[in-house]
Design a protein that fits this description.
This protein is an all-alpha fold and 448 residues long. It is 68% helix and 0% strand.
Length: 448
């Protein structure tokens, strides 16, 4: 029988919640607050709040910044008032994640634009505190449910917007518009929404009876925004999830499955690379990947001031004299700006140097090990979802950016996975120890 997120679990299991959750169970109002916050991370809510009377959107994102500040303040206050000890324990078990975020803050000391780097790195720190808040206050099942509900709202609004504009029935409309979100961001959100819908399939969540309709809605919107990278990344994530959750294998069997999958995927990837241009042409793309390769070449040619430490977190693409060469090489003019390098890996190197790249790789390895341990040794279905999210992120980051993106839904789920799995591992070890002690005591009492 396939184990899902609703599989009954004893106390201390991945879905029983922490002792803090048991002693101060969140109420309905706090659940709505968490869902609202995740919706804000999708950039949808603030887009509506910043719309003016003619329906145009304020590019300053002031409304979103104020909204996020209030969300962070509320979450941080709850955590510090009621769960200080749990916060310290979780922080100690996730030192690598804190080091990564701390290094981003430290990079403002040598950044091209120190003020911009400091502001954005502080926002990244606040995002981390909110991830700790979510893990401390809610079981992983509830967090995933909140995230999926927020994505359903985004998908529904997107579909209604296109219906109102008649874009769905327009044969020449290859890419839908979205409510204040770029098509790439919307594609990433919908792709992760599909992963969540698969992971929550037939689990006891709010829209359990409409699993098929939810998945169909999200996939329809993903096709509408025409985000190829997100779609390919989604299939990588779903493939990883199915490999891990098929009868919940043991460690050795799981290792064999991963090796077998690699032996199948690698030849397919090699064939795809050989016919790369033909495949892109069929998908309506070209070998420049929608002109991304021009940006990559210009950015790599310019490079950060120091390859080892980078140009500072979110500082490389800030308008400055240093970046005008890149814009000129891409557009032939320095008057056109690029907000990012459209690659998580390239942007990490540009902003944080080889040290930052090494830290991100270490974070990927840590999350993969925690997911593998959760599935192979504790039969944790949530670990399988976060491994799928990791596979999605590794592929998506090739031509898109969400790594270390402050106040971003996918990065928030990534942090929740790393933190949450460390907590679940401790709970499962303690539970197994209790069961072992109970069995030993039972045998001793029988012998006496």
């Amino acid at each position: 029988m396939r184990e899902t997120l609703d599989t009954p679990s004893p106390p201390g299991s991945p879905y029983a919640g922490s002792s803090a959750q048991a002693s101060a169970k969140p109420g309905l109002l706090e659940c709505i607050f968490a869902t609202f916050a995740l919706l804000t991370f999708s950039r949808w809510m603030a887009a509506l709040l910043s719309a003016d009377i003619v329906g145009q959107y304020d590019g300053s994102a002031l409304a979103r910044s104020l909204l996020l500040a209030m969300i962070y303040l509320i979450a941080l206050s709850i955590t510090l008032i009621y769960h200080r000890q749990e916060l310290v324990r979780l922080a100690f078990r996730n030192k690598l994640l804190i080091v990564v975020v701390g290094y981003a803050v430290l990079s403002s000391l040598w950044a091209i634009d120190p003020s911009a780097s400091l502001r954005r790195s502080i926002a990244l720190c606040m995002s981390l505190t909110f991830a700790f808040y979510l893990v401390i206050r809610f079981p992983l099942l509830r967090i995933l449910e909140f995230a999926l509900i927020s994505i359903i709202i985004v998908a529904s609004s997107t579909l209604l917007t296109e219906l109102a504009a008649g874009g769905i029935f327009d044969a020449d409309n290859r890419r839908w518009g979205t409510v204040g979100i770029t098509a790439n961001s919307a594609g990433r959100i919908f792709a992760v929404g599909a992963l969540l819908a698969v992971a929550l399939w037939r689990s006891p969540w709010l829209f359990q009876r409409f699993d098929m309709a939810v998945l169909a809605l999200i996939l329809f919107c993903l096709a509408g925004v025409d985000a190829i990278t997100a779609t390919v990344s989604m299939f990588a994530g779903i493939g990883s999830y199915l490999i891990l959750t098929r009868s919940m294998p043991s460690a050795n069997a799981l290792a064999v499955r991963i090796i077998a999958a690699a032996l199948i995927v690698i030849p397919i990837a090699l064939v795809a690379l050989n016919y790369f241009d033909e495949i892109l042409g069929y998908l309506g793309r070209d070998s420049t990947l929608t002109h991304r390769t021009y940006i990559w070449e210009a950015a790599l040619e310019k490079g950060p001031p120091n390859d080892i430490i980078g140009a500072g977190y979110r500082s490389f693409w800030v308008p400055s004299h240093y970046i005008t060469d890149v814009w000129y090489n891409v557009f032939g003019s320095a008057n056109t700006e690029i907000g990012n390098g459209h690659s998580g890996y390239i942007d990490t190197w540009l902003e944080l140097g080889w040290i930052g790249v090494g830290l991100i790789v270490a974070l990927f390895v840590q999350m993969a090990l925690r997911c593998f341990t959760g599935v192979a040794y504790f039969r944790d279905p949530a670990a399988a979802f976060f491994m799928a999210l990791l596979a999605f992120g590794i592929v998506d980051s090739i031509t898109d950016r969400f790594l270390l993106e402050h106040s971003e839904l996918v990065w928030m789920l990534f942090m929740v996975g790393i933190i949450g799995l460390s907590q679940r591992r401790r709970q499962n070890i303690e539970q197994n120890q209790k069961l072992a002690n109970f069995g030993l005591n039972t045998r001793l009492s029988d012998q006496s």
